[in-house]
Design a protein that fits this description.
CATH architecture of the largest domain: 3-Layer(aba) Sandwich
Radius of gyration: 21 Å
Shape: globular
CATH superfamily of the largest domain: Class I glutamine amidotransferase (GATase) domain
Structural class: alpha/beta
Organism: Saonia flava
Largest sheet: 10 strands, mixed
Protein name: Asparagine synthetase B
Distance between the termini: 27 Å
Number of domains: 2
Length: 394
């Protein structure tokens, strides 16, 4: 899985998932040749790699044992982690077509990793327990319809989307979309606390935590929920309820395309040519979880924008790990934390291979980006729940 030897990093994850789905174990060799996968040998696996265009090498038992022995040396920052089962994957996404695409569903489809789509009915119906891993679509959990009101309130897709959301909230027994979305956020939070793995990108990161902090507080202006917001609602936020962020300030202007001070999009002063972030280096033997999440064939990843591009460093809780950052801009791009028995990862930006994706832009063709480092980070999270559990040092 290094840069020189692998022709299709993304589909390699799909091969690994496919092997796991056949009830065969895989070893993930952390920090060895870009995070290589050691698969059992067999004609079917070789053929599948050839069909999907995935590069592979055939090793003798003596060669593989020698690699594992070298990795086990205390002098090497490497580790072999056993992957035991193919995780059941759910993507939280509305059934109706959206005017923008979703990077996770694109890369899952490209890598040929199966997933099930769920939405509010399934979440509120306690169906998340059926899945090991949940991705949050680019959703607005605050009930403000993505803060698209200022630019798109007359657009047919915005009007139709608002109507559909209100009808669904009513069907589920809620008088307001903001209340219904808040209930969904609480269900997802409980799913994580109970042992689930949750991954979110773009606006599903900060809007999720905002909804948790605003539980029981009306932060929506009348154009969103047909009644006034609570007076002085900023001071009524409860940051003890959030997953990753604290002490943030909400954006009160309904015409502004921004949720809060968490997001760095409007504070950034980086030209596209120098917009990169660096993956952190962890101890593979003592901290295998963040090491898994940072496996890549490069430590320097191209930046990309979104409604929520990156996170303000001093508004991230101290117990949350920074996995990727741009130090020059004092921003975090990729963060991870533990909540109860479960885990969550937040990844800023919309599409790792589309620098500034806008509503209505064509989707990214991943056939043109089979070695994308930014998309690899998503797939690291997909395989993470497959790892054999053992007691962690941190």
């Amino acid at each position: 899985m290094d840069a020189e030897s692998q022709k299709n990093h993304l589909k390699a994850y799909g091969i690994t998932y496919w092997v796991l789905s056949k009830q065969q174990k895989v070893q993930w060799l952390l920090n060895y040749r870009g995070g290589a996968f050691l698969l059992p040998d067999g004609d079917a696996i070789r053929k599948e790699c050839q069909i999907r265009g995935v590069s592979f090498e055939v090793l003798s038992d003596a060669q593989s044992n020698a690699i594992l022995d070298a990795i086990s040396s205390p002098a090497k920052n490497q580790e072999a982690v056993v992957l035991e089962k193919a995780p059941k994957i759910a993507v939280y996404s509305p059934i109706s077509n959206q005017p923008w695409d979703d990077a996770v569903t694109m890369v899952l489809t490209y890598a040929e990793i199966p997933y099930v789509t769920v939405y509010d009915e399934e979440v509120l119906g306690d169906k998340l327990a059926l899945y090991d891993w949940l991705h949050l679509h680019h959703e607005d959990f605050t009930g403000q319809y993505g803060k698209f009101y200022g630019a798109y309130r007359a657009a047919p897709w915005y009007i139709e989307g608002k109507k559909t959301a209100e009808e669904l909230a009513s069907k589920l027994g809620f008088s307001k979309v903001s209340d219904e979305k808040g209930a969904v956020a609480l269900k997802i939070r409980n799913y994580v606390i109970g042992g689930g793995f949750m991954f979110a990108m773009c606006s599903a990161t900060d809007s999720f935590d905002i909804a948790l902090a605003a539980d029981g507080v009306d932060i929506c202006e009348p154009m969103f929920d047909n009644d006034p917001s609570d007076a002085n609602y900023q001071n009524k936020l409860d940051f003890t309820k959030t997953m990753a962020f604290t002490n943030f300030t909400l954006e009160r202007n309904p015409l502004k395309y921004e949720f809060s001070s968490i997001d760095m999009t409007n504070k950034r002063r980086l030209p596209k040519e120098s917009d990169y972030f660096t993956l952190m280096d962890f101890s593979a033997k003592w901290d295998p979880v963040p090491t898994m999440l940072c496996q890549n064939h490069t430590t320097l990843v191209k930046g990309f924008m979104g409604q929520t591009t990156s996170f303000t460093r001093n508004e991230i809780k101290p117990n949350v790990l920074i996995l990727g950052e741009n130090k020059i801009n004092s921003e975090a791009r990729y963060i991870h934390g533990i909540k109860g028995k479960g885990f969550f990862t937040f990844y800023g930006g919309h599409d790792p291979e589309d620098y500034q994706h806008r509503v209505g832009d064509p989707k990214t063709e991943l056939e043109l980006h089979p070695t994308s480092p930014g998309y690899r980070l998503i797939l690291n999270n997909v395989l993470f729940p497959a790892a054999r559990k053992k007691k962690q040092k941190t």
